[in-house]
Specification:
The chain is an all-alpha fold. It contains 4 helices and no strands. The two termini are 13 Å apart.
Length: 81
């Protein structure tokens, strides 16, 4: 799946990030977390499933909230996962 990546430095297919990308849709579902979010109050939220994936990556890499934000923006491994 990851052999034909268009990026100049592909993420290894046997890495944690590539493996998480393969199972992310199976692990986290927005519907499982729907009770925690109010649909008609405040601004629209990001996908709860996406946030769960970021939290898992943050724990795996042992980084702060601020560093997690930076990695979501710039780290190709995190973007893939």
């Amino acid at each position: 799946m990851f052999e034909n990546q268009a990026w100049p430095h592909p993420v290894p297919s046997d890495s944690f990030y590539a493996r998480l990308a393969l199972v992310n849709d199976e692990l986290f579902h927005d519907a499982d977390l729907a009770e925690m979010y109010c649909l008609d109050n405040g601004r629209p939220c990001l996908s709860p499933a996406l946030l769960c994936g970021v939290l898992l990556l943050q724990f795996y890499d042992n980084v702060s909230d601020g560093e997690a934000v930076e990695r979501v923006r710039f780290d190709l491994r995190w973007k893939l996962a």
